[in-house]
Amino acid sequence: MKPALKLPVILGSATVLALSALLLGKPASTPPPPEVPRPAPVAVAPPPRVEVPTPTKPAPADASAPVIQIALLLDTSGSMDGLLDQARTQLWNIVNRFSQARRGGAAPRLELALYAYGYAGEGAGSNEIRLLTPFTTDLDAISERLFALRTSGGSEHCGEVIQEASQKLAWSTNPDAMRLIFIAGNETFTQGPVDFREAVSAASKRGITVNTIHCGGYEQGISDQWKAAATLADGSYMNIDQNQKVVELPAPQDEEIARLGTELNKTYVVYGGAAGKASQIRQQEQDSLSRGVSVQNMAARSVAKSSGNYSNESWDLVDAVKKNKVDLGAVAADDLPEPMRNLDGDGRKAWLEAREKERAALQQRIQELGRQRQEFLAEARKKNPTEEESTLDGVIGQVVRREATKRQFTLE
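The line above is the sequence of VWA domain-containing protein; the predicted structure tokens follow.
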């Protein structure tokens, strides 16, 4: 019999920061719910290999605005299929933990980055490390990278990937920014040419908190130095069962939230030529992949799409004009959608404002249903406890709840 996993979090001596990172699966038939059933585990068939466009870098932001930066470093060696499945299926749940985050009344800017290590696929160096996504606010780009990621390789250089992430990513210089690395894997932390102690200590000096997630037994992770690494950076040591299937309890609001999430797409106004079109297609593809996992997953994605964390100013005129990133009058007619091309300045503005109002109404309704959904699921979990606390989203959530208070963030 498999021993029960321990899930305590070992916190470092100074402030321990920790927050998110990401997840997924494939549709499974949901058994008829007597009361609140536990649907069959979701298995995801790998989608065909696709060319993934480069995600948009975050636009320059107000230096005084609160910032949350999370770099997720995933072991993609041959035994980590379960970890990748959890990252895909739980991405939107993780993002939604920040949907109502505030500090001093201001919503933080959420930026995510993604590294693969123990990776022998295309684009990897001889050290089997590849930067998949630099810091970005483009959540669809993160989702796309996760779906396209496959296990390969076998050299898990934890110290080296931490060193690369801390040195090469564009970390905020805001002294109050939350700068977090989450590294997940299952081999000894001492592999590779870079001493993990030096890499973690250097990251800590830059204000980056390194949190370690061992995929396996708690004591084995201590033996393999995962706890030691977290302690050096005032971070958290956690362990999960990477092969545990994510159980998604159904809620009566799921179908309507998912439908409204698809309706949101009709309010997006593409500009920027081929690049903008590619981003719009990516949005639709990520909807399809999410719905393919389950209606519950699409509901979680739709809630994320209705939040301030889901912004597409690089290709959507509504977001771009709202955030003063684009002068509507300066956009070439050929870069506008057909209904706007023959309108004068006032007509363009009115047409765009109508789309913004449509979106705001949909977002408000999704948020209302999302709150009802969360209340329902909270009660359902009391009656039908799941083992979600031993999954990637579960352990990240434990740390988020603690660290939000320490960083003077409110989450709800």
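Note on the example: The two ends are 40 Å apart (CA to CA). Residues 276 and 315 are 5 Å apart (CA to CA).
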